[in-house]
Amino acid sequence: MESFADKHFRAQVLAEALPYIQDYNGKIVVVKYGGNAMINEELKDSVMRDIVLLNLIGVKVVLVHGGGPEISEMLKKIGKQSRFVGGLRYTDEETAEIVRMVLAGKINKSLVDLIERFGGRSIGLCGQDGHMMECEKADEALGFVGKIVHIDTKVITDALSLGYIPVVSTVGFDGEGNIYNVNADTAAAEIAGALGAQSLILMTDTKGVLRDKDDESSLITKIFVSDIPSLVKQGVISGGMIPKIECCKEAIRRGVKKVFIIDGRVPHSILVETLSDSGIGTMFVNGD
User: Fold this and answer.
1) Residues contacting 12, CB < 8 A, separation 6+
2) What is the C-alpha to C-alpha distance for residues 242 and 252, in angstroms, rounded to an integer?
């Protein structure tokens, strides 16, 4: 039986969440879903429950996902070698078809099903639907890896207006019928900007931006966009974190109020970041 102390604690948590619920009610939040939270079934359930709860309290959640490991697994199954150029997957026409099959098919529909099973109303979309994500080649050396040239969010806003949670896979298109593999962080930032989102949440396998990469207690909880060049120069932001931070900066530039990098390995990290005083990751905002 739950003790009075436990009940009191629950009441305190709900009271603390109230101003955040009021702040986010009716607003759009874009969540980029990836990393270990996509692989670990317990974490996957936690993320989908968080998204359903946010939707039920009036937050308009858009879930954007990638799926690199599952693409690699499918290529391996058909005997096709994955090839990377500068850390990015080379995508020929056959690989682009596999990307669409895995992202827009297997992964997308499984996430829609999971949200529905937890009581949400969801609809699966990809960047080809409604001509949402028009692309061109980012680099000839990468094949059909897409650079987004135009975003049309009408199909997303239509779904949100009907109370659905749009689940978007990052498959792009061009006017010649080509399919493109689009980086999920980049797509989420562009979509959030085009929607005028209140916030963008990037789920990762790190705690956030660390002042010392070997010390998790050195988490930087708030970064102004104007501080980013200095942090890069100091080496605080380096390696694979640089393109992720560029996506954060681009989202802010396009009008997103706040961008968060949070640890997707922590259960219910989305709720902790959005509906509590404590937060859990690094927040990016405009200004000095």
Assistant:
1) none
2) 15
The DSSP secondary-structure symbol of 206 reads S
Spatial separation of the C-alpha atoms in residues 217 and 213, rounded to whole Å: 10
- Alpha-carbon gap, residue 64 to 5, rounded angstroms: 39
Domains contained in the chain, CATH given: 64-182 (3.40.1160.10)
Among 194, 162, 185, 170, which residue's Cα sits nearest to residue 60? 162
Q: What pLDDT score was predicted for residue 48?
A: 95
The pLDDT tens digits of the residues spanning 73-90 come to: 898 899 888 788 877 788
Distance CA 143, CA 138 (A): 8
> What pTM was computed for the model?
0.92
* Burial bucket for residue 14 (CB in 10 Å: 0-12, 13-18, 19+): exposed
* Residues of the chain predicted below pLDDT 70: 1-10, 288
CA-based R_g, the chain, Å: 19
Contact 240, 71 (CB under 8 A): no
Chain segment 234-270, per-residue pLDDT in tens: 989 988 888 899 999 999 999 999 999 999 899 999 9
